[in-house]
Amino acid sequence: MSPSIPELIVNITELRRHVGERRSVDCRVDLGEIGLDATSVHVEGPVTVAIDLESVSGGIASAGRLAAAWSGACRRCLDPVSGEIEVTVDEVFEPAPDEGVTYPILEDRIDLEPVVRENVLLGLPIAPLCRADCPGPDPEHFPVQLPADEADAAPVDPRWAALDALVADIE
Ligand SMILES: [Zn+2]
Predict the structure, then answer these.
(1) In angstroms, what is the span from residue 140 Cα to ligand 1's centroid?
(2) Domain edges within the chain
(3) At residue 32, what are phi and psi to the nearest 5 degrees?
(4) How far is CA 26 from CA 14, 29, 65, 154, in A?
(5) 153: left (phi > 0), else alpha (psi -120 to 50), else beta?
(6) How far is CA 19 from the centre of its chain?
(7) Most Cβ neighbours (<10 Å): which of 18, 56, 64, 136?
């Protein structure tokens, strides 16, 4: 677990006094290294948080927006590609949360970090393109990759064939 982010920890004692009480959280926070490992898409710089909290019966509703810049690699040509996302947040905090559905109220406070983190991750592009009609790898730089079974059947480089013969001799 990363250390908690103070701006995202909100004391809700006042909020919970009356249903309908509101409070807004506006800040820019650094989530550290965060991204999609599989595609190398990751968040660049701070995330802008603008969330309204409202006391509802049984918990706290959080609704608002997150904005962040991201960068990664084009899924066709692997050139660097970057952009910005804006994500809508709509989550509920409860004293006894439903795992995977609502978030916990921790005594007199809530931690918005998991909400920010999970929603930003969900908003990142899974398969970014440098441009909509990216033609894919430049054949000069990236020879076309054959599917695995065709690659196996491809003719063996004569230098490797010679090496194979040599290994056979030694054995
Ligand atoms: Zn591309």
Answers:
(1) 15
(2) 6-123
(3) 75, -155
(4) 18, 10, 10, 58
(5) alpha
(6) 33
(7) 64
**Inter-CA distances, 4 with 73, 115, 122, 140, Å:** 30, 13, 20, 48
pTM: 0.76
Condensed to tens digits (0 to 9), the pLDDT of residues 19-71 reads 999 999 999 999 988 988 777 899 999 999 999 999 999 999 999 999 999 99
Distance 60 CA to ligand 1 centre (A): 43
Q: What is the pLDDT of residues 100-120, one digit of tens each?
A: 899 999 989 999 999 999 999
Residues facing 73 on adjacent strands: 80
* DSSP tag of 143: P
Alpha carbon distances (Å) from 1 to 5, 45, 113: 11, 20, 11
